[in-house]
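Private note to self, pasted from the team thread so I don't lose it. Backbone tokens:
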């Protein structure tokens, strides 16, 4: 199912009683950025969308899964993961997306060739560890950079600026666990101003359009 990012952002902005100008000021972006996102004329990166949502504040998980049931379950079938995608190149699948008061985020992450968490380095409280299941991923943490392949892993403090991107020709799948506040309400990631792409004209290519799937 296609996820209407623009309509969701507009509805949440109205729920919080914020004008486009007010939200833009809180998030540190331009009014036109909010307008273009709400019209689905641009596709924000992971970092950029997080920056806008922090202006409310609301978490990425809540943004994509707020209409899921609130029952805390023990087991989750393949169709019960919370799915959210950024364009056609980055997809996250979260175990227990609606779990209340979570302390851990368990994710299956898929990066297609060219997939990138964004030109802006992310930084926020917590720790993250992961293992590459297939393919290869370039991970930058602070001044360190390494390409990890299947069977290799990582562990770092998410206070360190970091970025994931797939520079290869094959998809990369990794499984990660984090105690980060990235997906928690009210906790702001430290990011730089929104990429210039947010001001791109409406003729953006189809692959840049942001899609998301939700499964109850």
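Design output:
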């Amino acid at each position: 199912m296609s996820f209407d990012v623009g309509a969701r952002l507009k509805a949440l902005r109205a729920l919080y009683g914020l004008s486009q100008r007010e939200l833009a000021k809180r998030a540190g972006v331009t009014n036109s950025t909010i307008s273009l996102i709400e019209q689905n004329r641009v596709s924000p990166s992971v970092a950029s969308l997080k920056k806008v949502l922090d202006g409310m504040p609301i978490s990425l998980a809540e943004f994509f899964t707020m209409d899921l049931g609130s029952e805390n379950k023990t087991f989750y079938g393949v169709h019960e993961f919370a799915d959210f995608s950024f364009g056609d190149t980055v997809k996250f699948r979260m175990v227990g997306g609606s779990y209340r008061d979570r302390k851990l985020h368990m994710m299956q992450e898929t990066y297609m060739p060219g997939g990138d968490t964004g030109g802006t380095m992310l930084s926020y409280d917590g720790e993250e560890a992961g293992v590459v299941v297939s393919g290869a991923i370039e991970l930058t943490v602070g001044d360190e950079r390494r390409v990890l392949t299947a069977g290799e892993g990582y562990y770092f403090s998410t206070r360190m600026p970091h970025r994931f991107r797939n520079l290869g020709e094959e998809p990369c799948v990794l499984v990660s666990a984090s105690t980060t506040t990235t997906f928690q309400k009210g906790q702001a990631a430290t990011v730089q101003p929104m990429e210039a792409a947010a001001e791109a004209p409406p003729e953006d290519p189809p692959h840049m359009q942001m899609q998301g799937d939700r499964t109850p």
